[in-house]
Design brief:
single chain, 267 residues, alpha/beta, Rossmann fold, 7-stranded parallel sheet, 10 helices, 7 strands, globular, binds nicotinamide-adenine-dinucleotide, Epimerase_deHydtase, oxidoreductase, oxidoreductase activity
Length: 267
Amino acid sequence: MPYHRVLLTGAAGNLGRVLRERLAGRFPVLRLSDVAEMAPADPGEEVVRCDLADADAVTELCRDVDVILHFGGRSTEADWDTVLPANIIGAVNLWEAARKTGVKRIVFASSNHVIGLHSRSERIDHRAMAAPDCRYGLSKAFGEDLAALYAYKHGIAALCIRIGSSYAEPADARQLSTWMSFGDLVRMIDVGLTADYTYEIVYGVSDNSRTFWDNANAERLGYTPRDSADRFIPALAGKTTDDPIAERTQGGSFSSAEFTGDPDALP
Ligand SMILES: NC(=O)c1ccc[n+]([C@@H]2O[C@H](COP(=O)([O-])OP(=O)(O)OC[C@H]3O[C@@H](n4cnc5c(N)ncnc54)[C@H](O)[C@@H]3O)[C@@H](O)[C@H]2O)c1
């Protein structure tokens, strides 16, 4: 791969720790960053503690970096005081630092919660209207639009991966639709690193027969998932909730939390 130094944000997190292990040795230098403490650097690694909300620190973090895997930030719903600095100010700081320091590509861990209020009965693709199901989902929608601005206007290519549920195994009936294995996550990141594109949105999901999403755009770019949640159907199909908004919408419990709207007005 034509990259010397790859920056991974969110390196102390669940996916960051998986990626640190699975990407080890793939690049001359893997720079790992998080606001939280990380294990010390192994050969071929650099460990830099940095708060994404600190613009100057983020500019230093991006120096001499060729490509960024942006996984850092708030990863679940929270109040604005938490979401704003981590995911909105943090994303602005990262893309602006990338522009200043000459980074050419960012692979962005977006989320299915960008479109979480869409109905499960609707099979949507990457062109569906944004319908965030929470403040966290809206911050990821902002990140996608920010990525588009910097891609088209400043030439920083971006692959926005709307990750479904990336865990070792799916945990409930909804995740039979949304699960992405760690192997498929790495395969999608490889697409992000190698495919020829300016700005793209794809769904981060394995080859699940119960998927909510038409992921033709990812396949067009070269993504071929090898895993599927289908073998968990017998164990998990009955693991639903008794919450009608959660069961109706793609975002599940993220949609139903704090819901005070009209269910009949949902997209
Ligand atoms: N795991 C999933 O299924 C899933 C699904 C959709 C999207 N994502 C996205 O993928 C990314 C990683 O997810 P995860 O499950 O590993 O989440 P995680 O919460 O385990 O990791 C996120 C990391 O970001 C760090 N972080 C938070 N605020 C920060 C800040 N201000 N500055 C620097 N670092 C900060 C945290 O310390 C944490 O280590 C997140 O962006 C998340 O939104 C994950």
